[in-house]
Amino acid sequence: MSEEPPRRRTIRDVAKAAGVSISTASNALNGIGRTNPETREKVRRIAEQIGFRPNALARSLLTKRSHSIGIITNDTYGRLTLPMTAGVSEALVDHGVSAFLCATNNDPRLAQLHLEALLDKQVDGIIFTATRADLTPPIDLTRLAIPVVYAFAIGPPTAPTFIPDDAQGARLAVQHLLDRGYRRILHITGLEDYLAAQLRAETYRDLAGAELDVLFGEWTEEWGHEAVRLVMERGGDLPEAIFCGSDEIARGVIDALRDRGLKVPEDVAVVGFDNWRVIATQTRPPLTTIDMELKELGRRAGLAMLDLTRGLPVEPGITRLPCSLVVRRSCGA
Amino acid sequence: MSEEPPRRRTIRDVAKAAGVSISTASNALNGIGRTNPETREKVRRIAEQIGFRPNALARSLLTKRSHSIGIITNDTYGRLTLPMTAGVSEALVDHGVSAFLCATNNDPRLAQLHLEALLDKQVDGIIFTATRADLTPPIDLTRLAIPVVYAFAIGPPTAPTFIPDDAQGARLAVQHLLDRGYRRILHITGLEDYLAAQLRAETYRDLAGAELDVLFGEWTEEWGHEAVRLVMERGGDLPEAIFCGSDEIARGVIDALRDRGLKVPEDVAVVGFDNWRVIATQTRPPLTTIDMELKELGRRAGLAMLDLTRGLPVEPGITRLPCSLVVRRSCGA
DNA sequence: ACCAGTTGATAAAAGCTTTTAGCAAAAAAT
DNA sequence: ATTTTTTGCTAAAAGCTTTTATCAACTGGT
User: Fold this and answer.
1) According to the UniProt entry, where is the signal peptide (chains A, B) (predicted)?
2) Closest Cα of chain B to A207: distance in Å?
3) Cα dihedral A197/A198/A200/A204 (nearest 10)
4) For A33-177, where are the E strands, in sequence order?
5) Binary contact (A82, B86; C-beta < 8 A)
6) Nearest CB to A278: which of B82, B99, B278?
7) Contact by Cβ (8 Å): B280, B247
8) Cα distances (angstroms) measured from residue B91 to each of A64, B85, B171, B297, B306
9) Over the stretch B38-56, which tens digit does the pLDDT of each residue have?
10) How far apart are CA A186 and CA A195, in angstroms?
11) DSSP 8-state code for residue B323
């Protein structure tokens, strides 16, 4: 009936079992101070035997390092946040650091609540991530006593910031088309007030020449359809290739082209942006696209955070991380 | 140069500023013990003024409740995990409880590492979530001293478990079709060894009659195409409606029907499963589908965890939470 | 005026670890 | 043989909070 809870072993248990003082046990386990090798091994063996694991709370209270960080995101959907979070964890887990994930839904009250809980728990730092780089956080993170890193979000110039290199990604896409001999390249993309859209469009113009203008619209399949309709209606030569600002747009474009009897990539080549697998692998043909390497982005943010919490210098300001090209079949085999 | 870090205020600071002892300050702030109302107000006012917030680590060390829990997931993609996590947080944040998110990628080593970090940090409980309900966790969570709750995953019979009610969801879908007058209903779904697929198929057979057999296949758009091809080739009457096991399959089905000149919903109605917005809103026409209410699922798991950590009784075993029907246009306006 | 009970506060212990300072014994140096 | 140094270990403090036990002062009853 009265099942006594299996109390966790403390360093006191180790000390007693090894017949030494608590301090010696601590020294032996942490390999600091002056300890007889024999004693050290004995203590370690016994600790291992009885399954001792130090209480991180007590340790943190003293060392002022909690080995936990907070990730604050405004993404409810998860497509961007989870790969990034996985990357962050990957960088941290080997160092015993865990990450609190706080989904704020972009609600300032919720964000404040989460932030307070994090600070109370003495997190060593905070990583802020967003669904869109050029969006201000729902709370002020600039006056905290702990380091803040921004991932897929832009913070103050003093904070380390990691975002995908949109220009480089666009270059990858357009250059791929050029390399394969496509010339008249059109760019169909999302909302013009997204910084990412601007950067990609700019690079596109530099590389592809600006004979054809950039078509800004929504970030949806529907806009992909609509854009193709516009292009066909205004007549003139068809483009040889289309660089789309997102995989969703690309999917709309591909479907619209097929509806009109045009073959991809024979008549028109298409390249997307995002490598959102559920879309990119299921278009007909599968979509060649740009991957923003979100996991790597998260990993880098995690590593930066690790350095910061150790007091090591970390270069402030924006670091743009390279995207990669994922070749499928929409630009020819 | 030597910027002194703004040390966090402790209860000691409050006590000193209020001219009382630490114990009195603690009593006043927590409203326990015997305290003169005047003193209590004074202490609270001063605490507020100097911005005192108790150190959760120290508190937890004593009370044995860390006000943090761990979420272990094997989902790297985030589609299921993030909405659920958001739901969990939503249930917990008002109680000052935060959640560590651990993405294991289904790697036992990684899972073990995460688990140890969580236990060291004295989490009050663990929620395990998966991308598929009938999959065993990469680590053994049955012998822990803390409560474990399963969400979108099946644990031991003694553990509270929350999963979507697949049968009810399927009923919702099929009944919707029947209510709208569709009779010959076909079911195209995913892999037969998924428990979810079996449950949905069973319900479908009960409701729609089993004249037409269930078509099991992959969980992909491609299979949706392929399945339509199979149906058309084998000839006979076309179904009046198709109940698809996932939105991805539904999308393939809709596209395949259109390719063959069949109109949705005029010639064939289609209903999906998942309410994965990027798909369901972009099919032509937009897809009527079943939403598994993942956020609510997470919220329920969070609430159960909350009760467990407080020692309140929580019903063990599987709780199937209702899905909802999201009507768009693929079954008529 | 004395005793019992109440009130409002406090000192100290507890929770678990790390770290500082110190002590006794052994080793090395004079 | 005595002093200095080194070695191996330990007691105690510190980190911040909550809680238990205690204490002094006051209230009210006889």
Assistant:
1) none
2) 31
3) 130
4) 68-73, 98-103, 126-129, 148-151, 160-164
5) no
6) B278
7) yes
8) 29, 10, 29, 11, 8
9) 999 999 999 999 999 999 9
10) 19
11) P
Question: Which positions in chain B touch A96 (Cβ < 8 Å)?
Answer: 117, 120
**CA-based radius of gyration for chain B:** 27
- Taking the alpha carbons at both ends of chain A, their separation in whole angstroms is 69
Which amino acid belongs to residue A123?
V
pLDDT band of B19, cuts 50, 70, 90? very high
Distance in angstroms, CA of B174 to C1' of C18? 64
Q: Residue A214, CB half-sphere, CA atoms under 13 Å: how many?
A: 23
How does strand B269-271 pair with strand B289-291?
A: unpaired
Beta strand extents in chain A (DSSP E only): 68-73, 98-103, 126-129, 148-151, 160-164, 185-189, 215-216, 241-244, 269-271, 289-291, 317-321, 324-326
Average pLDDT over residues A145-174: 95
The Å distance, CA of A231 to C1' of D1, is 106
Contacts of residue B61, defined as CB under 8 A and 6 or more positions apart, other chains included, come to A55, A57, A58, A61
Place of tokens 């409980």: B125
Q: Taking CA A192 as the corner, what is the angle to CA A187 and CA A193, rounded to the nearest 5 degrees? A: 155
Please give the domain boundaries of chain B with CATH numbers for all domains.
11-54 (1.10.260.40), 63-164+294-321 (3.40.50.2300), 166-292 (3.40.50.2300)
Both structure tokens of A238: 């068809």
Chain segment B110-128, per-residue pLDDT in tens: 999 999 999 999 999 999 9
CA distance A40 to A43: 5
State how far residue A149 is from chain B, nearest Cα, in angstroms: 18
- Give the start-end residues of each E strand in B190-307: 215-216, 241-244, 269-271, 289-291
Alpha-carbon gap, residue B35 to B28, rounded angstroms:
6
Contact A174, A202 (CB under 8 A): no
Radius of gyration of chain A (CA): 26
**Chain B residues lying within 8 Å of A278, measured CB to CB:** 248, 276, 278-279
Structure tokens at B7: 């040390």
What counts of helices (H) and strands (E) characterise chain B? Answer: 12, 12
| Spatial contact of B292 and B329, defined as CB atoms under 8 Å apart | no
Whole-number distance in Å between A67 CA and D5 C1' = 40
Please state, in angstroms and rounded to a whole number, the distance separating the CA atoms of residues A141 and A116.
12
Look up tokens 């500023």; give the residue. B17
Q: Across the interface, do B56 and A122 touch by the CB < 8 Å criterion?
A: yes
The SS3 call for residue B254 is helix
- Contacts (Cβ under 8 Å, ≥6 apart) of B161: B149, B150, B151, B153, B154, B155, B317, B318, B319
Q: Which amino acid appears at position A297 of this protein?
A: L
pLDDT in tens, A178-192: 999 999 999 999 999
Residue B222 near residue B251 (C-beta atoms within 8 A): no
